[in-house]
Structure formats: structure tokens, C-alpha cells
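Subject line: Sequence and fold of a protein, written as C-alpha cells
Body of memo: The sequence and its C-alpha cells, given next.
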Amino acid sequence: MPNNGSLCEQFARIIGGQPGFAGGKCVATINRKQIRATILGKRFRVTSSFSFESLNEKTGRALCLGRAAFLEKEVNKFIRAIRNEGIKVTSVRNEWLFDRPRLIYINIEAVDRPLVFARKVRRALDAAR
């Protein structure tokens, strides 16, 4: 098993995001630059983040989480794809008032090997867009 820094970099590379650590957990952040969003008329950077923590060194499994931002037209495709990958959808919601375009956030969770989870997420993201 690679060390957590190397594992985090691999995790982020598969997902297509920037690696980092926050609160002791690996986080991969995707900036959706192609979405020109505003809140209250001011520019807003749309990001999605995926993480893993509590890695079991024996099994290689960890708590894997995600918070992903979507345009309304992408939501159903992503939900269908992520569920087909065996990952739980735990919430679907709008977080902002006065956002343009309307942004929908989806939270997901699984206990899985981080790189397996990352591949599943990548396939679902590709299916949604």
C-alpha cells in the first residue's frame, strides 16, 4: 500500500482534481470552470470535492465521501450512474439562493478502497456530462 500522500495524489488524479489534505483526510477538488455561475450577481467558483479517511491498513478500505455540484440537467444522469456503481446518494439539494444557473449538490458515501471509489466516481461524472 502506498503512503497516504502518494495514495491521495493517485486518488485525485483518477477523479481529475487537485489533491490536498484537510482535517487529516485526503481531499480531491474539481473546479468546474466551464460553469459561469453567479450568486447575488457576483462570480462564484463551482467546485466538487471527494475525500477518504479512516483508512484500514489491513483491508485497504476507507470511508469515502463526495460533495459534487451539478447543473440541473446533469443531476438524474449522475444519480443513476453513481447508484449503478454501488455508491449511496445521501442528499440532493440546492445550497444557495439567487444562484445562476441553478446549482444542485449531491452528497455520496461508501466504504471502499480509495482508488476503486475514485474510478467509480470518475465513471459516474463522465456519464453525467
Q: What stands out?
A: The chain has a mean pLDDT of 95.
